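We emphasize that the prediction below concerns an isolated chain of 278 residues; any contacts that depend on oligomerization or on bound cofactors are therefore not represented. The input was used exactly as deposited, without trimming of termini.
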Amino acid sequence: MTMEFSASPAQSEEFAQWLYGLQRSCQQPPLKPRMPLYIGGAHVGSVEEGVAQRLLQQHFFRQEAGQLVLAPDSATMVLQDVALWLRENGLAAKWRNEQLAVLDGSGQTHATVERAVIRTLGMTSVAVHLFGWLADGRIWLQRRALDKATDPGKLDTLAGGLVAAHEPLDVALERETWEEAGVRWPQVKNVHKGEMFVVQCPIDERIGGYMIEQCHWYTAQLADDVLPVNQDGEVAEFALLSPEDMVQAMLAGDCAAEAALIFARVMGMETNRSHGKG
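Result of the prediction step, given as a token string:
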């Protein structure tokens, strides 16, 4: 699906400049030096040097040639201890009791880790997003709850979230669509998968966070009589916007970054693509 929006040349130029700035902000190096984190010979993340030294003092890792190293056979167990220590020392995000896959650059899983510390450890997360639209071109969006750690209160895709360890993408997408929007998969049609992109930038400086996120996004048509209803308490409300209104919301800073990047792709606008590891 490709959308178009009606705009004057000046408005189109304003949006193009804004989008370029957003793209740059979503492709930024770490603010401070970080030590690479390895499981065996696989590069799986990085840790801000100050935090890394504290972890080394706790003997969680070996240090080899300026790298933090874990043995493959004990990595998940040690990472659980690391996560608990980081939480006790104020270096973790909100504790979720959710395990995410620890991935290398090729996408191979080497361990699992508590979601709350994936940014502190500079590991790659995997997210799914559903961009829902109606036959007349209007777009269903959610407004993120005010207590969300990232982009609180901003407009976002109809549904989206992180993929759990060992969870297939399609299963995660169906789960998030129900949990966030109360929409069952048989209620959507014309589902298309877009091209995955990666966001990498500093996040939550308090915990030495660095975000690397694979964004897998899908478009789907909803029937006119489908009304989203949140199930998990993580959505404040839903809104039905025209593409023109969506653009204005983006320019006003009222849209989550990943949702804005997805919308730009739905409209067929050029974007920067980058892949990497912090």
